[in-house]
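Board notes (copied after class):
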Amino acid sequence: MTHSDRIETLLEENRTFPPSAEFVGQANLTDPQTYADANADPEGWWASWAEQLTWDEKWHTVSEWKPPYAKWFLGGKLNASVQCLDRHVDAGKGDQVAFHWEGEPGDRRTLTYADMLEGVGRVANGLKTLGIEKGDRVTLYMPMVPELAMAVLACSRIGAIFSVVFAGFSATSLKDRIQDQEAKLVICADGCWRRGKVLDLKTVVDEAVADCPSIKNVLLWRRGGELKTASNGISRDCEWSDMVETQDALCPPVLMDAEDPLFILYTSGTTGKPKGIVHTTGGYLTGALATTSLVFDLKPNEDVYWCTADIGWITGHSYIVFGPMAAGVTQVMYEGAPNHPKSDRFWELVERYKVSIFYTAPTAIRAFIKWGDEHPAAHDLSSLRLLGTVGEPINPEAWVWYHEHIGTEHCPIVDTWWQTETGGIMITPLPGITETIPGSAMKPFPGIEAKLLDEQGAEVVGAGGGYLVLSRPWPHMLRGLWNDPERYEETYWSRFPGFYFPGDGAKRDADGNLWILGRVDDVMNVSGHRLSTMEIESALVDHPAVAEAAVIGISHELKGQVPVGFVILRSSHESSPALAEELRKHVGTLIGGLARPEAIHFTPELPKTRSGKIMRRLLRDVAEGKHIGDTTTLADPGVLDGLRAEYEGNKG
C-alpha cells in the first residue's frame, strides 16, 4: 500500500474531525471566506492585524518585496515591549495574571501584567546602567523563569538586539553564538532544576566568555534554594540583586522602526556553523499576534494558555513571549521536566491552573503514550478546550491518542507547521472552520501561499507530492542571516529561484490538504523509489506495541539504501525477535514491501535535541559505524552509548 493509499484509507475510515457546534459557536473565526479574502488582498489582510498593535507612527507603505528581501510597514515606529505590557496596563488590565509560574521543586509565583511591566522597567534601567544601547547585542542564557521573559522584553524596550541561547547548550555552542553576534553582555542564571538536580549554568558561561572579548559584563540572576554561589570574583560579573532590583521601575520605551532588528536566534546548519536568523520588529509582532489569536482561538480575558516550549526556541519567542503577551492572555510557565517527580506532572499542572489551551510537541505526546494512559486519566482535564502540536509532523496514531486521552474527544487539535525562519505558524487548521485529519497540517494560514514543486521546479497541481515552497512574502519572515547575506540567499532561495524553500517535502491529497513529510534529507532512495522516513515511522507507530519510532536509510550494496527502524515500545510490551519481524511485516502491509525495514532495533530512548526533534543523522552514524558528529544540541548525549551497544549487540 502506497502512502497515498494510506491517506485514502484514513479518509475512508471517516477519520475526519469537524469542530463541534459548541466550539464553532464561540470561535473567533468561523467564515471560510476569510481564506479567499486574505489571499485576494494579502497586504490588506496583514495591515488589518498590524492596526491592532499600538504604533507611535503609522507606516506609509505596507510592504516592499525585492527578492529575496522583504520589508513590511515601512515608516512605522513602535516598541515591542509596549505591545506586550504597557497597552494592557494602560487599558486597566494591570491586575490580570500574566504568568502562573511553577518551578520543578514545586515553588510557585504569580505575576500580573503590572508586575511584569515593573520588572521589565527595572531590568531595562539596569541594562542602561551597564552601558547597553540601541543596536547592542545581548545574549541570554537562562532557564524557564519569568526573569527570562523580563530580560527579553527589557532588551526590546531599550532597542538592544537580544539572542536567547537555550540553557543547556555547551560552552562551545554558547561561545560560537556570542562571537558571531559580537555580544556586549550575557544575562544568565547561576543554575536551573532538571529532574531533581541542579544544573550549573554559570560555569558554562564562564568557560564560554573567556574567549569572547566583546563581552563587557555578565549579569547573574540567582535561582536560589540549594544552588551553590557560583562566585568567581571576576570583575565583569554583576549581581541581579545589585544591578536590577535597586533600579527605578519606570523606563520610557525607545522608539523602533518597524524594520529594526528585534532578535537573532541561531538554528543548526548543514555546515556545522549555526545560522543567525534575524527577525525585525513590526512585521514579526504582526504575525505573532495574528497567528496566536486565530490558530489558538484565543480569548484573552478567559483562557489560561500553556505552551510547553522553552523560550530558547522560536516557539517560545512567538508563542510564549510576543504572541500571547501582545494578546494579553494568562499563561502557565513551567521550569522542569515533564516526568518529574512523576509522569503526570503536566496533567497535574493542567488541573491546578485550569489550562484551556495546551500546545506541545509530537515527541512529547509519544512520550506520554509510552508512560501510560493512567497518568492523564488520574486528573481532571475538563478545562481544556483546544490542543496544539508543533515541532515536526505528528503521526496519525499519536494524534488520535492526544484527541482521546487529553482532549477527551471534544478539543480541536491544531497541527502546526512552521520554522525558526518563518517566525510564526504557516500551515495549520483554523479550529472554528477546519475539519481536521490526523497527521495533516491542512492548509496555509490566511495570507500565506504555499506550493509544491517537482525536481525541475514545475508546480505540482492537484493531488501529489513535491518540494514545499512559499511563493510570496509574509510580515514575520526572516530578514536574513546575521552578517551572512550570501548564505541566506544560497540556503533558502537558490534551489528554486523566486521561492522560499524551507527544506521540507509535502504531499497534497485530493481535497487540497497538505501532509508534511519532513526534511527532504530524511528521504531515502530504495531500489529507485523515494521513501520518506515519516511514512515508515507512522506505519511503525500504527502498531499497538510501539510508542515511538525513528527510521533512517543506510547504504545497501544492491538496493542503494534500505530503511532501518529504531523503536521504543510501550511499557506493556517486551522486545523480541518475533516482535521485530511482526513490525517489519506490519510496515510492509501498510506501505509496501519496499518500505519494510531491513532491521528493527529496540531502544529505551532516541537521540533528540532539547527542542524534541529526533537527530536521525546520529542514528545513521551509529548504524554505519561512523564517528559520532557534533552532539552539542542533544538533550542527553548519554543516549548514544546505549544505542551503540544495543545496535552492535543485535545487528544481523
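Comment from the instructor: The longest strand covers residues 546-556. The chain is about 35% helix and 25% strand.
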